[in-house]
Amino acid sequence: MEEKKTKVLVVDDEPDVVEMLKMVLENASYEVVSAFDGRRGIEKAKKEKPDVIVLDLMMPEMDGFEACKAMKHDPELKRVPILVLTAIGQHISHTKYARDLGLGLESDDYIDKPVDPTVLLKRIATLLRKG
Predict the structure, then answer these.
(1) For residue 48, what are the domain limits?
(2) Model pTM?
(3) What total number of domains does the chain contain?
(4) Plot region of 49 (φ>0 → left; ψ -120 to 50 → alpha; else → beta)
(5) What's the pLDDT tens digit per position in 37-76?
(6) Burial profile 120-130: b = 16 or more Cβ within 10 angstroms, e = fewer
């Protein structure tokens, strides 16, 4: 009988980023599903029941802040660890996200873009152990 793979949902509006993350995660034996905006990310999370979610912050439709908050307040999803990806770290004080981060993002961890694959895999493994 085949062992069930750990499922990771990647939510990012940049197809190149999704593809790169998918390659890294699949090479580490994760099953990967993806969505390209926050609203679809929530729908996909409810349907796919991922073990961990990798979520970009800056996206059209519904950004990662809104999606993260919605998932953490959803009874079906609130226990799923969320690793936020952000390219705004070095520009944070010049964006609307500075205020949002100050109000407290409900993610379980975050990592800056560009993503170092080794760091990404370590952070995901840590979140899965905590869960």
Answers:
(1) 7-125
(2) 0.88
(3) 1
(4) left
(5) 999 999 999 999 999 999 998 898 899 989 999 999 999 9
(6) beebbeebeee
